[in-house]
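DOMAIN: structural biology
WANTED: fold as tokens
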Amino acid sequence: MGAGKDGRPVRDNYMKKNFSLDKLKNISSVKNDLTVLRHMWFGSKKGDDHAARLESFYGPQAAAYDAFRARFLWGRKPMLAACAARLADRSNMIWVDLGGGTGENVDMMAKYIDLASFKAIYVVDLCHSLCEVAKRKAKAKGWKNVHVVEADACKFSPPEGMATLVTFSYSLTMIPPFHGVIDQAISYLSADGLVGVADFYVSGKYDLPMRQMPWARRFFWRSIFDIDNIDIGPERRAYLEQKLERVWEQNSQGSIPYVPWLRAPYYVWIGRHPTVGHALHEERVERPPMFPPTFLYTQSWEDPEPDMEVMEINGNDTVLTLTSGGCNALNLLVQGAGQVVSVDCNPAQSALLELKKVAIQQLEFEDVWQMFGEGVHPRIEDLYERKLAPFLSQTSHNFWSRRLWYFQHGLYYQGGMGKLCWVLQCLAVVVGLGKTVKRLANAPTLDEQRRVWDSNFIIHFVKHGPKLLVWLFVKFVSLVLFNKAVLWFGGGVPGKQYALIKADGIPIERYIARTMDGVAENSHVRKHNYFYYNCLTGKFLRDNCPTYLREAGFAALKGGLVENLTVSTNFFMEELKARTYTKVILMDHVDWLDLHVAQELAELLARQVAPGGIVIWRSASLCPPYADVIRKAGFDVRCISRADQGYMDRVNMYSSFYMARRKGNKKD
């Protein structure tokens, strides 16, 4: 004790640590959970009708219902967020929550949309005990527009006669006459209304790709839920899609409290009255072998300025381009292309571009700037849940839901090239070049940038040092930093492209030195080269960034141009077969192909590119062998620039840039 103290702080700290209110709450929570589990697993469902069976099942656990289900019913929040995102600009709405239980959905919805936007909210349930909980909650929360109705959902209609939103939150699988309740809900759904469903499920034997399950999983989960009179078969969703048009869906799986390893399958589905179109479905895609589990590029690595000089982009164009970082696909729309199809075989690249597209559609400029200009957003989790996830495809959602930390640690230090940039920045600091890198990135003029570059001791040594020592040094650097593994996973340079560089008789270290020195001597990084400014700093500047991150470009895209972008995860030639194009951007794709595959591509280009149409590509080779193949297929081929003739463009990473025009009259 000592110093005149009585020891109470020590005792109080001990009491707080070992007998705190939080610990008592945790004990109480576990006790409530065990009550729920006991009635779920061992309780009998007694009663002569459905209402009595529901009461016998839910009545004893009603008080603990919400806390337990919050860690079990994972589809509720995404379903409510998806509905709210599509209703954000409406008012005086009517919402009917069928099987709404304790009214917890209303409380959750308040996070996504102002409840005052609803003229009336009807929580409809057949279980008396759950309705009583909902009534107490509505009174405690002061919800004047919330009405708890103890009734059969198959017979309920809102007094107003129409509803803007109808939801089934883990209730449709517990309503035996599901045809009747769906028909009844549709009968009062307004013409522009939505139906939202979240529930457990198993797929059919033959189902849509993103829903499909193996037979053992189907049998296991359907049997487990059947014990509690819950039918999670595919029939309910099939009937929904017979009566309504699917707008959006997600299929996923979530953990179960106190049951390790098992994850229960659930889906979220949003539908509306059928329109003249038809609902598309998403194909299941996998990344190709040898690709990393993330994207290689966070930005496009082809300078769009020389592209625009030769492509003659106009509103009648249908353009096919490879995705890469997606910046140039968005630039094509800003430059006036009528339709742009962006394709990549790596689903992670598609996920990046799809996120950019949805962000432009759903967010304000400042949020988009923070995400993709700064590469960091302090509220990314909230923005993603409320405004981005509700509009992403399932593949993209699966990718981003596990990688939101990219926007906390810096987007442009992620992926293959991002990690390479981060490593090189760290190495620069270790060898004492950290300040030099900052001076290079922020040089106010090109002349100052050249002085910083040429005065650097490593650059000076490489350019003017003893030849033997320079040779030993560059060979060591090449072995460590420019080996095939680093070039592929960090720079996206495959083995076939590496072979083209060697075929020109250029060592890889000299190829890279030519690239870097050309940029440093000829392109002002701070003012007019956002590619390398991003590499050096991990971000863009507002006056030095891709077109979609400039306010004018963003406004044009958000004003409707971005709707003309199709993001496809597919192999290039498969997407080329899908339609006729007036412009095709091959990037360096043909460098990756065997010559016989390049022959197939050239023949396909001849069939799918309209007469007079333009094809452009870049190559790591000074004279790519497939240029003649494309010429013989029916194109006038012209080399625009070559690296052996000097600095090429702001990226300066390729050896040649080509354009080919499809022979024939445009009117043919």
